[in-house]
Every structure is written in structure tokens, then in C-alpha cells.
Amino acid sequence: MELTQLENAVARPRKTKGLTVSLATREKDVLEAQKLRYRIFAEEMGANLPSRTPGVDHDMFDPYCEHLIVRDTATHEVVGTYRILSPEKAGMVGYYSESEFDISGLHHLRPSLVEIGRSCVHPDYRTGATIMLLWSGLAQYMTNNRYNYLMGCASISMADGGHIAASLYKQLSQQYMCPIEYRVTPRCPLPIDSLEQNLKAEVPPLIKGYLRAGAWICGDPAWDPDFHTADLHILMPMNKVSNRYANHYLGSSE
To answer: Is the CB of residue 228 less than 8 Å from the CB of residue 155?
Structure first.
């Protein structure tokens, strides 16, 4: 897999405490990320991931995506990953989000709209350092390529049948709902009205990080039966990212 100049924005590794982050430059790198995804989503979380290759998570979007990876510099193991779909490549295959939401309201943003997804971290590396590297790689990618909007599906487990997800949505939507012109509609809505909505629940760290950085929730959650999750559509205008987060993730991590 060759990278164009555009795709090479964060290919130079950044380092912190024995970890590096970069864009995958070889098919081997992508395969390692896909194996990590399978381990986390299928084996750990129980997602239904039909795969042509045992132990590998891949779908129709992967060939069009760039794959951000974090490696342990001692073991050379891929321990964290995000996949990134640029607006140019989305013009060829569409956005993954469109399989879960009607995002036609975001059509005017498409020339500068990047989608991220399939984020996961190895159980032994679920620390602030790993997340910081992944997010710094994303931030650098957005800045270097002058893209203005970042979106994705942020998941909440439905192990309890969806009551926690409904309660979290009710809680978060009061503060973080986007302006009406950015609203999306779930294709398979979580049946919020039939679920408990007043449970006390801790916000998942990834969603908490998105919202603190300046992201919006763009509408009611979708139910993803393959991943056993309720998914929130998240949109982050880069001009809304707080100075504290911008300095943190765009600053040097050497």
C-alpha cells in the first residue's frame, strides 16, 4: 500500500514513553491493526464480524481508509488503532456512518468532512499515553490536510439491554446536542421511550474525551446489533476544539 503526499500527513512517527504513532505504510501494518480490531471487537466484546480471513476484522471501507497505528517500540506490536476516511475517498465508497444514520443534513460539509472509526486499544495499553498518541495523530492529520470537520460513531455497550445507553443519551443531549442544521437520523433507532432513562451511568472515556474537546452529539442513538452497541453520531468542528485540547494534542510528544 503506497501513501500519497496527502495521505502521508502523520507518517513520521511521534513518540512517547516507548510508544509511537504513525499512519500504516505497508499492507502488513494494516493487517496487524485489523487483527487487533478482531481481538477487541469480536473476542472481547462479542461483536458479530463476518470475515473472509479468520481472526481479521475487515470490511468494504478498509481499502479506502488510512490506518493510524500505535506501536510498542520494544515489542513492535500494534497496540492501538483508528481508521481514517478522507472526504476524497468517501466520495468513492461513501461513509460508514451512512449505514447507521441518514446524514444528508451534513452534505454541505462533505468537502472537508473526515470520518474516523474502528478505534481500539490493546487491554494492556489502555492508558492516557496511548489515547494521547492516537488523538495527537488525528489532530495532526486534520491540521496538516486543512480538514474542518471530524465525525464518527461513538459506541455505548448494550449489555444491559440499552438502559444505560438511553440514560446517557438523555443526560448528554441536554448539554452537547448540535445545532439543528447538523442533525442526523438513525436508520435503526434505539427504542429510547421503552427504556429506563434515569439511571446513573459513567460516560465512556472515549465519548467523554470527544465532548470535552468540543464535539457535538448529532441526534438520537442508533442500535447496532452486530456490535451489540448503541451508537451516537459525533461531529467535531475543528474550530470548536478548545485551546487546552489543541495545545495538548498538537504539541510535541517527544
So the answer is: no
Q: Are 250 and 141 in contact (CB under 8 A)?
A: no
- So what's the architecture of 6-250 in CATH? 3-Layer(aba) Sandwich (3.40)
Which distant-in-sequence residues (6+ apart) come within 8 Å of 174 by Cβ? none
Name the DSSP letter for residue 225: T
Is the distance from CB of 43 to CB of 17 less than 8 angstroms? no
Q: Is 59 helix (H, G, I), strand (E, B) or coil?
A: coil
Helix (H) or strand (E) holding 233: strand 229-237
- Judged by DSSP in three states, 82 sits in strand
Query: What digits encode the pLDDT tens for the residues 16-62?
Result: 569 999 999 999 999 999 999 999 999 999 998 887 889 999 999 99
Q: How far lies 86's CA from each of 62, 65, 142, in Å? A: 12, 7, 10
Residue 238 has a CB neighbour count (10 Å cut-off) of 18
pTM, 2 dp = 0.88
Beta strands 229-237; 216-217: pairing state: antiparallel
The cell for 90 is: 468517501
